[in-house]
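Fill-in record for SRP9 domain-containing protein.
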Amino acid sequence: MVSLALKDFATATRRMVELSGVKKTRLMLRVRPSSARKTFILKSTDGRTTLTTRVADQSELKVVEEIVNDFVTQCTSALTPPPAPLAANPQAPPQKKATENVAPSGGGSGNKQSGGGKKRKGGRH
């Protein structure tokens, strides 16, 4: 386990995510409210190397936010597929060809059921 200053931890964690990928990298925040100094611990690991740092000063929270935001952004970008490239000449989607001898149905029989279902016993009174 390697203990680093916060800025070095941020740089090393970003590098770890780049090299190992988000599937292998974990980022953990451990808050210790019972501590008199209200410190919390940040850890990042890729399974081989574990980096840690302590955050005790409120002025360092901006750097912590940046680390977490970068990590979450990397995770979500790895999960979502990249946008499809736009074609220079967009083609219309293929359409079904109409048969020449079939007349269009004006009323549209839609979802009507055809006969042939089971007959009811007893009927209605």
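KEY FINDING: Strands lie at 2-3, 26-31, 40-45, 50-55.
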